[in-house]
Design brief:
This protein is α+β, with helices and mostly antiparallel strands. It is 20% helix and 20% strand. 2% of the residues are buried.
C-alpha cells in the first residue's frame, strides 16, 4: 500500500473502525491531541526508511510526554 494509505489506516480509518472518529484519528478542535512530531516527513522519504525516522516529540492528551 502507499505510505499515505498506511498513515490513514493507522489514524482516521482506525478511529472510524473503533467508532471513535469524533474523539481521535485526526487533528481537529475538540479531539484528543495525540500525535508525534517527526524529524522527517514520511511522505517524502524512501518508504524503507520510515522505520528509522526519529520521533522528536510526543503529545498525548494535549501534554508533552518525556
Amino acid at each position: 500500500i502507499s505510505v499515505y494509505d498506511g498513515l490513514k489506516g493507522i489514524t482516521i480509518d482506525a478511529a472510524r473502525t473503533l467508532n471513535l472518529e469524533d474523539e481521535i484519528g485526526s487533528i481537529e478542535v475538540g479531539k484528543l491531541a495525540n500525535f508525534v512530531i517527526l524529524k522527517s516527513d514520511p511522505l517524502k522519504v524512501n518508504p524503507m526508511d520510515i522505520k528509522d525516522i526519529i520521533v522528536e516529540q510526543t503529545i498525548f492528551k494535549g501534554s508533552v510526554v518525556q
